[in-house]
Amino acid sequence: MVRPKTEEEIALLRENAIIVSKALAEVGKAVAPGVTTRELCRVAETFIRDNGAIPSFLGFEGFPAAICTSVNDVVVHGFPSDTPLKEGDIVTADIGTLYKGYNGDSAYTFPVGEVDAETRRLMDVTKASLYKGIGAAVAGNRVGDIGYAVQSFVESAGFSVVRELEGHGIGKGMHESPGVPNYGRPGQGPKLVDGMTICIEPMVNAGGRSVYVSRNNGWEVHTSDRSNAAHYELTVVVRHGKAELLSCFDFIEKDPAIKF
Ligand code: MG
Ligand code: MG
Question: Is residue 22 in a domain?
């Protein structure tokens, strides 16, 4: 059962989502060749704590770091490491926060210096598919309409959607019902109603859709064919019948200090 959020809860989730959005931008400012993902993690954790929130991924089911940093063929759940980023890499920061009892959760894939044209297209298509999904998140639609919007856009661009992982409701829980798959059929799944708060997060592979979980750490999800993967995530509330952004990418994309 999905319990729609009250206006007070939506206001708290919005405050939190802004902290996450700004934390992603802090990471974006730090991304450069030679920087390690451990350093990106430290930047994010400092910002989160300085703003009165807690990095919710740290210790979640044993996850060892404050944020996920997923490089190139790592789709999600990458561990921050001491390996320096290289020109042409892509790195996804996925950030979760706990603030006043509510959760925030968003992700962005950053280029490291100049990336090749196909990688740039992968990033652009993945981000555009997120907005297609958000556009389908209107009251009276169903979760399958979101998945269909994402999947049809991604596949028509020649990329593939990861199916093993999905978006989710969010509130006091980091992952609440309903699950929000990035594939689906129109008119299928739970109905969207005003007050629902959900994270939509397409994970898209440049190559095939098959993925595997690292045997080394049991967390990192890799593309099976070692192709690059991109991942963008925003939190929205269905309100007055339409999806309204709680988190956003404005702090990243309108900051002159972050170059693309
Ligand atoms: Mg996330
Ligand atoms: Mg999420």
Answer: yes
Say if 245 falls within a structural domain: yes
Q: Is there a contact between 91 and 69 (Cβ–Cβ < 8 Å)?
A: yes
What six digits make up the tokens of 119?
Answer: 């990688």
Q: How far is the CA of 109 from the centre of ligand 2 (A)?
A: 14
Task: Quickly list H helices, 67-193.
Answer: 117-135, 143-156
Q: What is the CATH number of the domain that holds 152?
A: 3.90.230.10
Band of pLDDT at residue 135, cut at 50, 70 and 90: very high
Q: Give residue 83 CA to ligand 1 midpoint distance, Å.
A: 22
The domain of 28 spans: 7-253
Q: Average pLDDT in the 38-50 region?
A: 98
When divided into structural domains, the chain yields a total of 1
Measured in residues, the chain has a length of 260
The pLDDT of 184-192, averaged and rounded, is 97
* Cα 93 to middle of ligand 1, angstroms: 8
d(CA 222, CA 213) in angstroms, rounded, equals 6
CA 6 – CA 90 distance, rounded (Å): 38
Distance CA 89, CA 221 (A): 17
- Please tell me the distance between residue 201's alpha carbon and the centre of ligand 2 in angstroms: 7
Q: How far is the CA of 156 from the centre of ligand 1 (A)?
A: 25
- Residue at 259 is within a domain: no
* Position 2 in a domain: no
pLDDT in tens, 1-36: 688 999 999 999 999 999 999 999 999 999 999 999
Cβ–Cβ < 8 Å for 204, 229: yes
